[in-house]
Structure formats: C-alpha cells, structure tokens
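TASK: fixed-backbone design
INPUT:
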C-alpha cells in the first residue's frame, strides 16, 4: 500500500491550498480516509475524515475552512484548505481510517 500526499507549500495568512493523496495497493472505495497533521514538537492530530459513503467530520478548529473529499475513480483523497492561519502550519498526512498505515506527508507552511 502506498499513500502519496502532495499539494503543500508556503502561503500567506488567509490563503488557500488543495492537498491530494493518491492511494494504491488498497481498495480505496471501501475505506474511510482521514487527514492528520503534525506541527513541529507536537503530536500528530486528526484534521478531517470521510467515510466510504461520503460522510465527513472535522476537528473544530478547521470547520468551515477545510473541506475533505474523495474521488473513488482516481483513488484520490483531497483536502481543500481555505482561510489558512499560521497555526495550520504542519506536515499533513493521509491514511485509511482504522489502519495503522502512514504515507509520506506534505508540508504546509502559513506565514503571518
């Protein structure tokens, strides 16, 4: 199983980024997936998740700003991030929910 996150970068406060996570070696459509992030010196935290049926949930601090989505035909997970804040700075990872499997993350840096 491979999980390749991409789309990170450096943006100013208030900017937007769209993260993608391409999955292979897994039956993508039957799994719930989540985005997590880890800031320097902090633990890895839950950001958002989407079920196989498209139900979503978010951590409180990103509600209304981030949108998780999926394209089962492309085996790809997305995270649209708007109104980015410096506290959103972290390495972002995607993973199938309930599976202890982490891929390479993508760095998001928000400058103030």
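OUTPUT:
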């Amino acid at each position: 199983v491979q999980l390749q996150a991409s789309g990170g970068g450096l943006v100013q406060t208030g900017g937007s980024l769209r993260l993608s996570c391409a999955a292979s070696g897994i039956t993508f459509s039957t799994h719930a997936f989540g985005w997590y992030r880890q800031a320097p010196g902090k633990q890895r935290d839950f950001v958002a998740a989407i079920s196989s049926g498209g139900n979503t949930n978010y951590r409180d601090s990103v509600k209304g700003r981030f949108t998780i989505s999926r394209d089962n035909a492309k085996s790809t997970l997305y995270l649209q991030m708007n109104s980015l804040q410096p506290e959103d700075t972290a390495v972002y990872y995607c993973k199938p929910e309930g599976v202890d499997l982490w891929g390479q993350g993508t760095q998001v840096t928000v400058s103030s």
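COMMENT: The beta strands are 2-6, 9-12, 17-24, 33-38, 44-50, 56-58, 66-71, 76-81, 90-96, 106-111.
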